Amino acid sequence: MTQVDDGSPQKKASLWRTVKAVAWGFFGVRKNSEYQKDIASLSPLHIVAVGFVAVLVFIGVLVALVKFAVA
After folding, report:
1. CA separation (Å) from 30 to 2, 4, 33, 44?
2. 54 and 26 in contact (C-beta within 8 Å)?
């Protein structure tokens, strides 16, 4: 567990919360309160890793759509 500024322990965020944060980041919309919770609980390494996988999935979907449209 990590410590917050007020000294209370805070649980690390789950993979699902990281995926949701990255997905909302792709759309560019996020409540400030949710953003603050993410900053406090998400690991930058996890965000980068999930973001990288999300970009690869997005590119794969685009390639598949183009192949489907051209074929």
Report:
1. 24, 22, 8, 17
2. yes
What global pTM score does this model have?
A: 0.71
Q: Each residue of 12-27: pLDDT tens digit?
A: 778 898 998 898 888 8
Burial (CB count within 10 angstroms: exposed 0-12, middle 13-18, buried 19+), residue 22: buried
How far apart are the C-alpha atoms of 10 and 25, rounded to whole Å? 23
For every residue of 10-50, DSSP letters joined together read EPPPPHHHHHHHHHHHHHT---HHHHHHHHHH--HHHHHHH
